[in-house]
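Form 7-S
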Amino acid sequence: MTSSHTLTDVERLRRSLPPYPELFAKALLVLVSGLPGTGKSHFARVLSKGAPLLILETDVLRKILVADPTYSPEESARLFRACHSLAEELLRAGVPVLLDATNLVERNRERLYHIAEMVGAKLIIVQVEAPPEVVLKRLEGRERRVNPEDTSTANWQVYKKMKHAQQHITRNHFTVDTSKPIEAAVAKIAREINRWLRS
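Output:
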């Protein structure tokens, strides 16, 4: 049963979303997983140019709920409760969804596996990674606001803390290393999305 607190959060997140892409008879969820600085949001933006996806970017949505994020477990739990409810609602409405979040813990991913199964959505899981030295350079650039598209405030300390929490993905998934060219991987995933939605 959904609490009124969560409903309020879901409503706030829903109102912040851009216009939806086209609606489909089939449901599709792309679950992106990866540590801060590995390039999840960049990957999501590139993929969305080749496939009709509504991106739920948790770094953006977190700031809708919390003006000055601390990335505490309580704050993250609140954010993900609302994001999961919103994702389910969108999938049921025929909106193809990409959830751009760290999604590091298998128990939390299982909630999304369950939502996909419940609504009959095709689930595509993508693990985004990059070598630590590349991540460090990116996160140092983040602190200097080098990339205006980078909405996250997670720094190297957050990365190191989260790295200990990262768990192996038990389901079939794509792995994309963003320190290398990603075009071929993006094209392959986009083909799978479009084949599913338009068949």
